[in-house]
Write a structure and sequence with these properties.
alpha/beta; Rossmann fold; 6-stranded mixed β-sheet; 10 strands; binds adenosine-5'-triphosphate; ATP-binding; ATP binding; translocase; AAA+_ATPase; Phosphate ABC transporter ATP-binding protein
Amino acid sequence: MTPPPVRRIAADRRATIAPQPLPTNGSHAQAPPAGPVTRGSSRPERQRVPAIERMRTEQLVLAYGGKPAVKGVSLPVRQGEVLALIGPSGCGKTTLLRSLNRLTELTPTATRDGKIFLDGQDIDELEVTQLRRRISMVFQQPNPFPMSVFDNVAYALREQGKKRPGKRELMPHVEEALRRAGLWDEVSADLSHPALRLSGGQQQRLCIARALAARPEVLLLDEPCSALDPKSTEIIEDLIVRLREEVAVVIVTHNLQQAYRVADHVAFMYLGDLVEYGPTEQVFHAPTQHRTREYVGGAFG
Ligand SMILES: Nc1ncnc2c1ncn2[C@@H]1O[C@H](COP(=O)(O)OP(=O)(O)OP(=O)(O)O)[C@@H](O)[C@H]1O
């Protein structure tokens, strides 16, 4: 198939949301180590789910002030699968992830070439608020709003409708989102509880519930466990694997063991290039590129 013509996107829009804070070294223990994946590494059995392509990037190029950060990446994103973006620091993982719902447009120096399609439609043809409803993102640091558990999830629902639905009307939807995020049992007794008083892991699941409430087709996760303790990490990894049945999931992670545990496909990036893309077992145990072999073997990080 001939790739569609390349088009430059204006990136002069000023940021309208605050940048996400970086994770702090708080009281939580660190998530499982990002060590190399060996043949003995565990990968939980997973149910086979039919894969449906929801997104595709074609010859995607992203640059900051003219300096390329992502260089001509073509990738599919499928529902029924988790796609992990891996690679050393600065290789362009987060830039690629943020471009999928046009968050890179909030960076004034960022420019983009190439195409991104959502269900076959060029994302530049979609209204950006609508697009970000269909492609939700969860960030490194849990960032619940300073309001109740209920209102955090209801926020996304209230934003959707023209008329503001009442609490009773919203309740089933809030419950459903909290259940899908695996948080309902822990918070259902008091939905008026302030979100900021939940544990870090609970806060991140609340952010996932908030992201799911608008029923997105694609869920983008930027190192969602990097600020969490091992137990919370495990809970969220289980959740990610379950969620892929109903939403396409793309995760950026530095933790190779995590990519191995949760992903169905892996994209390894290096200096902005997509070096290798393939099924998880293949990328980790039979990579075709020597650079991938070195990286997954722990030769550099
Ligand atoms: N807002 C920005 N302005 C200028 N350069 C940027 C900006 N954001 C990222 N970059 C540069 O783009 C390149 C890719 O960065 P990006 O954050 O996408 O990589 P990454 O693989 O996600 O890194 P990390 O794993 O450390 O988060 C790096 O060289 C980085 O310095």
